[in-house]
Amino acid sequence: MKNLKYKHLSCNNLDKDTISSMLILMQDNYSNITEKQFLQDLSTKQFVGLLCDEDNKVRGFTTYAVNPNQSGTENYSVLFSGDTIISPEFWGTIELIRGWCFSVAQIMKTDPNKTWYWFLLSKGHRTFMYLPLFFEQYYPQIEGNIKQQADLFNLMETLAVKIYPKLYQAGTGIIRFPYEGGDRKSTRLNS
After folding, report:
1. How big is the CA angle at 88 (ends 95 and 85), to the nearest 5 degrees?
2. Do residues 157 and 117 lie in contact, with contact meaning Cβ atoms separated by under 8 Å?
């Protein structure tokens, strides 16, 4: 197996070949990903973390948006993780986790005096399992202070309405993506 290297970049610095490789990776692993949808989503992000092999081939990536749809306030900023994928042959490597930590630190340095919240959409349990490793408080949390959970739920609802006003189902914690040909959450991978 080839080694992976993580690169934290501004989305403005992505060339057409890299964007094309990212799209192909998504289409090879998820159902119903169109170029238009992918490019539209990428245009809303400021940063990308690329995972490349020794031949500089894109083997994975994750995208980041800061305060999408003006979701931040004078008291806090919001980091939103977008599409995240790693080629199945590289599952189990920790380079994405290391890179994610590096990117988050770089992004948080841009406004160190604010509280930062990570707004995460997750279709499966794997990503969710990382939350207790990195965070003391998160929602939903099986074991936790009921008041903190209520406060985090209220914040999550506020952010979900700002970021996905037409897709968030109030009170449920669920965002549904109705895409032509099926739901974006359907995948050919086992999650």
Report:
1. 60
2. no
Which residues, 6+ apart, have CB-to-CB distance to 57 below 8 Å? 21
Whole-number Cα distances in Å, 171 to 23, 145, 154, 157: 33, 19, 9, 7
- Of the listed ranges 75-84, 123-132, 169-178, 182-191, the least confidently predicted one is 182-191
What SS3 string covers 152-185?
HHHHHHHHHHHHCCCCEECCCCEECCEECCEECC
The letter for the amino acid at 190 is N
Phi, psi angle pair for 48, to nearest 5°: -140, 145
The SS3 assignment for 149 reads helix
Type of residue at 115:
T
pTM: 0.82
- Residue 33 pLDDT greater than 70, yes or no: yes
- Coil, strand or helix: which one is 10? strand
Residue burial 13-52, b: 16+ Cβ < 10 Å; e: rest: ebeeebbebbbebbeeebebbeeebbeebbeebebbbbbb
Q: Token digits for 93? A: 């490597």
Determine the Cα–Cα distance for residues 103 and 63; give it in Å rounded to an integer: 10
The bridge status of strand 115-119 relative to strand 76-86 is parallel
